[in-house]
């Protein structure tokens, strides 16, 4: 099976694995490498020095810049973005862009920003709207701005020792027996 590329996508690379879907209004530059069985939703941008593994989901509105690697089974939520330069300036480019690695099975929630040069560990979970400014250990849950460690997660997405605080009331909740309890 070949890759399935929407006629309104601008895909310049030939390095796309079998069964990968690329949706409309997505741009993928010529040196990007994308594995098998991926789903790259509409309105995404994938720069040249990007590697995307197998079975990766990239939701709508995501930008993946030079220096980013997404390993197998990674999930990137809608409108998440990556950076690759600590001190960006118009028309001033670093000698090399920072490397960012999202390891196998990690999930990054909608509208999150991943700052250049970090590694997000295997099966880690980044909550929606978070700003990741440092390395994230495997099997951990982080959220907020900046993202802070809030708990642990298994490969099968079972949350462990998760503490939630309602930002309006200050009420604290805990994840117990597969449900949130006050």
Automatic annotation (TrEMBL):
Entry annotated with the keyword Aminoacyl-tRNA synthetase: no
GO MF annotation terms: acyltransferase activity
Family matches, as InterPro entries: Hexapep, Hexapep_transf_CS, Trans_hexapeptide_repeat, Trimer_LpxA-like_sf
Pfam families: Hexapep
PROSITE patterns attached to this UniProt entry: HEXAPEP_TRANSFERASES (PS00101)
Keywords: Acyltransferase, Repeat, Transferase
Family: Belongs to the transferase hexapeptide repeat family.
Protein name listed in UniProt: Acetyltransferase (Isoleucine patch superfamily)
Lineage: Bacteria, Pseudomonadati, Bacteroidota, Sphingobacteriia, Sphingobacteriales
């Amino acid at each position: 099976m070949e890759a399935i590329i929407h006629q309104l996508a601008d895909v310049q690379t030939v390095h796309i694995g079998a069964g990968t879907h690329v949706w409309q209004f997505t741009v993928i530059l010529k040196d990007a490498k994308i594995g098998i069985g991926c789903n790259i939703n509409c309105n995404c941008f994938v720069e040249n020095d990007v590697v995307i593994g197998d079975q990766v989901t990239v939701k709508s509105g995501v930008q993946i810049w030079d220096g980013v690697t997404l390993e197998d089974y990674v999930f990137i939520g809608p409108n998440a973005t990556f950076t690759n330069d600590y001190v960006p300036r118009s028309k001033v480019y670093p000698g090399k862009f920072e490397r960012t690695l999202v390891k196998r099975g990690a999930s990054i929630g909608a509208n999150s920003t991943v700052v250049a040069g970090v590694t997000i560990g295997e099966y880690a979970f980044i909550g929606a709207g978070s700003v990741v400014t440092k390395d994230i250990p495997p099997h951990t849950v982080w959220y907020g701005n900046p993202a802070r460690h809030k708990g642990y997660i298994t490969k099968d997405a079972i949350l462990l020792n998760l503490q939630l605080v309602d930002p309006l009331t200050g009420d604290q909740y805990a994840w117990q027996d597969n449900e949130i309890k006050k």
